[in-house]
Amino acid sequence: MSIPVFYKDTREVYLGCNNAFAVFCGIHTEDIIGKTVYELFPPEMADTYHFRDAELFARPGTQQYETVFRSQDGIIHRVVFYKATYTDDQGDVCGLVGLVLDITEQREAEESLRRSEEKFRALFETMTLGVVYQDTAGRIVDANQAAEKILGLSQECLLGKRLTDPCWQARRTGTSRLEAAKNRELIGIRDPVSGEERWVMASTMPVAENSPEQPYSCFTTLEDQTLEKQAERALKQSEAEKALILNSLDETMIYLDLDCRTIWINDAAARQLETTREEMLGRCCYDIVWKREEMCPWCRIPRVIASGKPASDTVTLANGRTLQMTTYPVLDGRGNLIGYLEKGLDITGITKTQRTLEEFNKKLNLLSSITRHDILNQVMALMFYADEIEAGIPAGSPVAALVGKVKDATTHIERQIAFARDYEALGVHGGEWQSISKLLERASRVIPSDIRYSSSVSDLEVFADPLLEKVFYNIFENALSHGGHVTAITVSFVAGESPGTLVIEDDGVGIPEKEKARVFQKGVGTKTGLGLFLSKEVLGITGITIAETGREGEGARFEIRVPGGAYRIHGA
């Protein structure tokens, strides 16, 4: 026999054993027979064997127990002893026979299984994914804590229930083929206690029983997707609201991907381009609008890529409509370019009106120019006649004073005509960047050489009407005409966080406090009263302001305040 077998007498002396027992003990058979356990094994083992043998002899019959056995090579085995007493012909107990079953591997496997089950249980209970185990009838027989939280019931309440029970008011959303192939289904449930709505992705995995023919039990994982579902709903609502808002605008809105393909357009864009949304989607704008096979040479997108900023221009479509178009770069959360937004305003009516006004202004300016020319010719004739009359009148004659008044009036008319010419050009050409040092250099030529003039404006440039030079000229002329004994004129610039201040001051008599509020009004002054009025109008076109802040007796001080975006230091 391959199973170790031995037998003893009532003195617990080994009378015999098979070869398997000798091999198991690591002792030769002849060394076993005639010996007791105390002569063969360590005391702690011998005590156990002796106690068990004495117990069996005290109560004859059979005995089974599990213990450890250390062989001669020091290896510990888990074993089960099966023992039974035997009798002689008279029925008296003569000894016992024993069988040893080595269950070491079995116990190791059981221990490994126990540790595995403990790990599984720990994982099962700590998973954030809800898991329930169902029997063949679909009844829940086990559930982890995450499943309790998702389903809203304790484990005690869950046991024996089915996921289809009415307490959850489960409703299905319609599973896609891909999800169905994975045994996955999104289910809407209601918490039986709080009444809160939840969306759960249930994934079922069948578990075969003893044989494939038997019914299946299953594990079902429950993933709470309530937040995702709510976010999806919010996104859909947001998309619907965005579409509603953008479709209600009269402005063209077109969203393009990086390849200039149309991703989305609003109703206004479809109307203005005389196309449909379906025809535009997925196609390039240059294909639909301009019937071209490649990007238009005038396209704004290369400018947007180069600068990273929006680019604008005016576009006239084939149908004659004129749009003011702006292309904006669209960036993701990390600042990466992901597309372009085309925004356009239909300015066809404005353009037509502007062209009509331009033609009208050309005609009006022509008429005004001819009229001024004719008036100046008559003014020159009046001055000539006045000079001739004055030359023929004796000095001190009352007529001479009248002739002088005629000449002054004629000069005043000439200045009024010059102002009209300047004012007519005001704002016609729009603002432009201008070098202040160059403008001051030309305007300062009016200052006599006996007056000290200094300028410290560096490489300052200001965005203003082309008549800006006239402003400086008028201020210089004002100092010469009204400043009294002016000996110095200075110009400086002070940069600021928002406005920068250009300061022009002299050391003359200054302007009386009561006159400061009126100095820029039309007609105020000893001459035409138009120079400072025109200066304020010229500056105001581009948002620049001017104020007189000097003190009477210390000189005039004009502060020209330039908005932050309307000045720059070239090269800074």
The count of strands amounts to 24
Mean pLDDT: 85
Number of helices: 18
Biggest pleated sheet: 6 strands, antiparallel
Protein architecture, described:
By secondary structure, the chain is of the alpha+beta class. It has 18 helices and 24 strands. The chain is elongated and about 190 Å long.
Secondary structure elements and pairings:
Layout: E1 5-9, E2 14-17, H1 19-25, H2 29-32, H3 37-40, H4 43-58, E3 62-70, E4 76-87, E5 93-102, H5 104-126, E6 130-134, E7 140-143, H6 145-151, H7 155-158, E8 171-172, H8 177-181, E9 184-190, E10 197-207, E11 217-224, H9 226-248, E12 252-256, E13 262-265, H10 267-272, H11 277-280, H12 285-288, H13 301-307, E14 311-316, E15 322-331, E16 337-346, H14 348-391, H15 398-424, E17 432-435, H16 436-443, E18 452-456, E19 460-464, H17 468-482, E20 488-494, E21 500-506, H18 531-540, E22 545-548, E23 557-562, E24 567-569
Parallel strand pairs: 18-20
Antiparallel strand pairs: 1-2, 1-5, 3-4, 4-5, 6-7, 6-11, 8-9, 9-10, 10-11, 12-13, 12-16, 14-15, 15-16, 17-19, 19-24, 20-21, 21-23, 22-23
Helix pairs in contact: 14-15, 16-17, 17-18
Pick out its properties.
alpha+beta; 18 helices; six-stranded antiparallel beta sheet; 24 strands; five-stranded antiparallel beta sheet
